[in-house]
Design a protein that fits this description.
By secondary structure, this protein is mostly beta strands. 5% of the residues lie in helices and 45% in strands. Strands 1, 2, 3, 4 and 9 form a 5-stranded antiparallel sheet that branches. The protein has a 4-stranded antiparallel sheet with strand order 5-8-7-6, with no helix packed on it. Its EC number is 5.2.1.8.
Length: 146
């Protein structure tokens, strides 16, 4: 039986979980996705784990933060004045907002998660929600080719 090689189109299903056991994404076996190895449709480290697999095989790989959503950086947690939101929204912990930040003289919209909010200040986190997390992917290869 042929094994997966770079640039093959494959049919896969998977479940991604955190070390806490929380499932963060599932592609069920009865609705697998088609992807081309090397295309970047899923995390590159997950794609790479498929290389050498044969149809019907299942494996679990643990993807480190640097190969997933990056390390968690405390410097990306900012305290801003609640007045910034006045008249637009009432910020509450857990909300994910699209906020403008300036990088190299250019204003960009980036997602930020509200950590805390009181009468004066709002603490926002610009890290990806999965930053710093090891993610376990249990991947099943269903087929090679379309």
């Amino acid at each position: 039986m042929r094994s997966v090689q770079l640039f093959d189109t494959v049919s896969v299903s998977y479940t991604a979980t955190l070390t806490s056991g929380e499932t963060i994404e599932t592609i069920p076996a009865d609705k697998p996705i088609m992807l081309t190895i090397g295309s970047g449709q899923i995390l590159k480290a997950v794609e790479a784990s498929l290389l050498g697999m044969e149809p019907g095989q299942t494996k679990t790989v643990h993807i480190q933060p640097e190969d997933a959503y990056g390390s968690y950086h405390k410097v990306l947690v900012h305290e801003i004045s609640r007045s910034v939101f006045k008249g637009r929204i009432d910020p509450k912990p857990g909300m994910v907002l699209s906020l403008s930040v300036e990088k190299e003289g250019v204003s960009q919209k980036v997602p930020a998660t509200i950590l805390t909010a009181d009468a004066e200040t709002v603490v926002v986190d610009y890290n990806h929600p999965l930053a710093g997390q090891v993610i376990a992917y249990t991947v099943t290869l269903h087929a090679i080719g379309s």
